[in-house]
Amino acid sequence: MLIERETQFGYHTTGRSAAVYLKSHGPEVIRALASGSQDFFLNPPEGFTEFPLLRPRGMLFVGRTDQIADLDRTAEQCARFVRGIRRLDFGEARAMVPVLREDYVAGAVLDPEAMDIDVHAVHQGFLRGLRARGGTSLTGTELIELGRNDDMFKIVTSAGTFAAPIVINAAGAWCDRVAAITGASPVGLTPKRRTAFVFEPPAGSAVDAWPMIDDVGESFYFKPDAGRILASPADETPMEPCDVHPDELDVAIAVERIQRAARLPVTHISRKWAGLRSFVADGCPVVGYDPRVAGFFWLAGQGGYGIETSPAMGRLSASLVLGRGVPDDLLALGVRAETVAPKRFLP
Ligand SMILES: Cc1cc2nc3c(=O)[nH]c(=O)nc-3n(C[C@H](O)[C@H](O)[C@H](O)COP(=O)(O)OP(=O)(O)OC[C@H]3O[C@@H](n4cnc5c(N)ncnc54)[C@H](O)[C@@H]3O)c2cc1C
User: 21, 55 in Cβ contact below 8 A?
Assistant: First the structure.
């Protein structure tokens, strides 16, 4: 049984992402889990979706003269999972994205394997899969109390009381709140606001063929989005868990940073939003049984990577829930249970 407090699934962070599949960012374990998800996205199981889940996009990390070492490091660190990753000089970068400014961009790294991802299709595919296997999914159902008697949890929700031997805490920004209800120790999750908005590109510019452009120092990004441009200041403002909204200042900061790097006037913003990306101190996800509360399984701290890693994260979780350890293909990619275990936060 899957329970969701809101009246629709995907209302919070999952419905607010930038919809990118990348194997070239985040901690090593995230790059491994994204790599371990690629086959699923490219060849989803029968009935999962009628649409392609991934579409070629490419990612161009750009840097100033003082960020050349960061570009070199990015190219080197990501080579294991992105074989085609390569350094570009300014001329090569501008041939791909003609609006880049020569007085800002000194060099770039191209990840040719970055893709756009159809988040809605992925999410709906997983929900359909749950129901097809006899699972129940309830919206408008808030977990209120969780207590354990013998081998069972008593799960008190706004829509009735249920019993189950195992509870998976996948409450996004609220995971530490759910742990508090249960009596488990928090893992120190910090939800961080990230802002995104969409604007019209200059008339006549052929933006659809551009890759995504990401500052190697993570202070802005932008990418084509159905004929428009989706952009972000890559902000990480710590927040309490909530229905987060964008701050005008963050939008203005993004516009200013993007215009320093590219000749890209922003005259009309058609949509803006914000979502919470939740992290623990080491930036790695938290996946595994709580060491002190029997049957309480953590699936938290997916940060800015929860969509692109979802198939592998799901398989890893299912296998750990059943006590079968890390699946062999993920082990071969370097995923270790200790790296993600909640016990690393025990006082
Ligand atoms: C602007 C932005 C850009 C991003 N871009 C990308 C990207 O390009 N690629 C990528 O892979 N990732 C990206 N991410 C990150 C990705 O969206 C998240 O990692 C992922 O959505 C997290 O999913 P989740 O299920 O943990 O959280 P959520 O989607 O927030 O789901 C948690 C759910 O738990 C419910 N809940 C909480 N408490 C209770 C309770 N007591 N009872 C019942 N239900 C409860 C909430 O209502 C919520 O719906 C981005 C995020 C943002 C904000």
Answer: no
Dist. CA 250–CA 233, nearest whole Å: 6
Task: Judge if the beta carbon of residue 53 lies within 6 A of ligand 1.
Answer: no
C-alpha gyration radius of the chain: 21
User: Residue 341: left (phi > 0), alpha (psi -120 to 50), or beta?
Assistant: beta
- pTM score: 0.97
- Digit-coded pLDDT (tens) for 280-315: 999 999 999 999 999 999 999 999 999 999 999 999
Q: Which atom of ligand 1 is closest in space to residue 20's alpha carbon?
A: 8
Reduced to 3 states (helix: H, G, I; strand: E, B; else coil), residue 146 is strand
Q: Give 205's pLDDT tier (boundaries 50, 70, 90).
A: confident
Counting every residue written for the chain, the total comes to 347
Cβ(272) – ligand 1 distance below 6 Å: no
Ligand 1: which residue has its CA nearest to atom 2?
17
What's the burial of 29, exposed, middle or buried (CB within 10 Å: 0-12/13-18/19+)? buried
Looking at residue 100, what DSSP letter applies? B
Task: Quote the CA–CA distance of 38 and 117 in Å, as a whole number.
Answer: 11
Cβ neighbours of residue 117 under 8 Å, at least 6 residues apart?
A: 19, 20, 21, 41, 53, 54, 307, 308
Q: Which residues of 101-112 are buried (b: 16+ CB within 10 A; e: fewer)?
A: eeebbbbbbbbb
Q: Is 14 in the pocket of ligand 1 (CB under 6 A)?
A: yes
Sheet of strand 54-56, all strands in order from the earlier edge strand to the far edge:
20-21, 115-117, 54-56
- Residue 236 in contact with ligand 1 by CB distance below 6 A: no
